[in-house]
Amino acid sequence: MGNAGAADKAKNNASRAVWLKNLHQWHWISSALCLLGMFLFAITGITLNHAGQIEAKPAVTRQKAALPAPLVTQLAAYAAKHDGANAPMPADAEAWLKQQWSLNAGGRPAEWSIDEVYLPLPRAGGDAWVRIGLEDGAAEYELTDRGWVSWLNDVHKGRNTGVAWSWFIDIFAGACIVFCLTGLLILKFHAANRPFTWPMVGLGILIPCAIALLFIH
C-alpha cells in the first residue's frame, strides 16, 4: 500500500509539473505577444480618460485644384445615374486624386448629386474630405489633423483605423484572454503555499465591480 501510495503521489506530481510547464509556456508566450499592445492600450486608456484636460489644436490644411475637362464630363454622366446615392468614385477619378493629392480613395463611397460629389475620408486622429463641383470641375480638399494624442485615442478605439488594425485588436484581445486565464491557473497551482492569493484575486474582482455599481450612473 505504501509503495502504491508513493507511486500515485509521484504520478500526480509529474502530471502537475507537466501542467505547470505548459501553463508557464503559454503564459509567457501570450505575455510577450501582448507586451506592446498592453502598454499602448494602458497609456491610451489614461489619455482617453483625461481627453477633456489634454488640449488639442487641430491643424487644418486646404487645397484646391481643377479636374481635366474629360474627367468632369465622365463624373457628370456618372452623377446623373447615381443622383442621391452613395457609390465609389470611378477609377479615373480615384487615380486623379492619387496623383493630385496622394489620396487613396480605396473604393470608399462618395455622396453623389447632379452638381456635386462629396467624398468623406475619415482618418485616425483627424478628418478629411474632397468636394468636386460638376459644373466647373473645381475640386477642394480639406485635411484636419488633431495631433498624436487624438491619433492614439482613435487607435485605442479602432476608429477609422482600417481592417488590418481591427484584426489586430481581435487577435490581441484573444492573447490577453489566454494571458489572464493561464495566469489564473498558475495562481491556483501555487495558492496552497501563498495564502493571500485568493483574497487578492477577490479584491481584483470586487473593487472594479463595486466602483461600477456604486459610482457609475
From TrEMBL:
TM annotation in the entry: 26-48, 167-190, 196-216
Key words, A-Z: Membrane, Transmembrane, Transmembrane helix
Originating organism: Janthinobacterium kumbetense
InterPro entries documented for this protein: PepSY_TM-like_2
Keyword set includes Magnesium: no
Name of the protein in its database record: PepSY-associated TM helix domain-containing protein
